[in-house]
Amino acid sequence: MNEPVRQPRAMDRGDLEACATLFAQVFSTPPWSEPWTHESALARLEHFHASPGGVGLLMPGEGGAVAGFLLGHLEPYLEGKLFYLREMCVASHRQGQGIGSRLYRGLEKQLVAHDVRAVYLATDRGIPAAAFYQGLGFRCSEGMAFYAKGLMG
Ligand SMILES: CC(C)(COP(=O)(O)OP(=O)(O)OC[C@H]1O[C@@H](n2cnc3c(N)ncnc32)[C@H](O)[C@@H]1OP(=O)(O)O)[C@@H](O)C(=O)NCCC(=O)NCCS
């Protein structure tokens, strides 16, 4: 039986340890299979959480665990603001139960109140989560390109 789906709440600094545990678990498994440790995940999440304009929302799970979270930051633009969604994940055993959608809708409500005009994110093309973002109204930009250059080796 599925666990009850609750309402998202603001992520506090004290939640970062539990979020890092979840993040390391989710992104260490396919399709990501990235070698995250608790420490490296915590460092990344702490960084975004402490950034100017940082906004995080989490879905409480059972027994003090975190079922899912999102984290990003507001940034000033010409008119109003933009929101850069930096990380989002839902516990593997809770995916497909509407938690990600609830988290994202909760975020949008907050962003509208902060005069945010658009939300953007960068991710791999063709990942399974693309269908999730498209279902929420995101479109892969035809006009914009994401450039990166590796510096090691
Ligand atoms: C992507 C993710 C955040 C979505 O959260 P979720 O709670 O599983 O999504 P929901 O249950 O709210 O699903 C909403 C819709 O998206 C679709 N969807 C969600 N994940 C999907 C996936 N992996 N593949 C295809 N469709 C997916 C659902 O089928 C659902 O469609 P419906 O409304 O037509 O039924 C979550 O699956 C996750 O953490 N995945 C692994 C980490 C990841 O890829 N994060 C994003 C990196 S940028």
From TrEMBL:
The keyword Lipid metabolism does not apply. Transmembrane segments: none annotated. Coiled coil: none annotated. SUPFAM superfamilies: Acyl-CoA N-acyltransferases (Nat). It comes from the Bacteria. Pfam families: Acetyltransf_1 (PF00583). Keywords: Transferase. InterPro entries: Acyl_CoA_acyltransferase, GNAT_dom. Residues 6-153 form the N-acetyltransferase domain. PROSITE patterns: GNAT (PS51186). CDD domains: NAT_SF. GO terms for molecular function: acyltransferase activity, transferring groups other than amino-acyl groups. Gene3D superfamilies: 3.40.630.30. This is GNAT family N-acetyltransferase. It comes from Billgrantia tianxiuensis.
